[in-house]
């Protein structure tokens, strides 16, 4: 909005918004709005505020499945880092393929 048309509107720069968010929680924004602004601007949370826990509210089964997923990911990453790959499947001879190759050799 243009400040001349709407005298109550304020123009806020990205740097000013990041500075406000770095100082702490805002009174004018709901927690959800504040999260969105932090993500949009890339503003880190204040240093004194404890971080939210992502796993709160999960059932025991969900926690176990998450643990299995993490374990499988770590094993796959370790295999990739060690250079261990599964060998490519062996080629199965095909009569049609052999005919095509023979005819191409005769032509060329």
What do you see in this structure?
With 108 residues, the chain is mainly alpha-helical. The protein is built from four helices and no strands. It has helices at residues 14-23, 31-41, 60-82, 95-107. Helix 1 (14-23) crosses helix 2.
Offer a quick outline of the entry.
Helices cover 53% and strands 0% of the residues. The chain is an all-alpha fold and 108 residues long.
Which structural category fits the helices and strands? mainly alpha
Rg, rounded, reads 30 Å
Strand/helix succession: HHHH
Secondary structure: helix percent: 40-55%
- How far is the N terminus from the C terminus? 73 Å
Count the E strands.
Answer: 0
Approximate strand percentage: under 5%
- Stretches where pLDDT falls below 50 for ≥5 residues? none
Q: What's the number of domains?
A: 2
Total helices: the number is 4
Q: How would you characterize the largest beta sheet? A: none
Taken from the alpha-carbon principal axes, the silhouette is: elongated
Descriptive labels:
mainly alpha; 53% helix
Write the layout of secondary structure elements.
Elements: H1 14-23, H2 31-41, H3 60-82, H4 95-107
Helix pairs in contact: 1-2
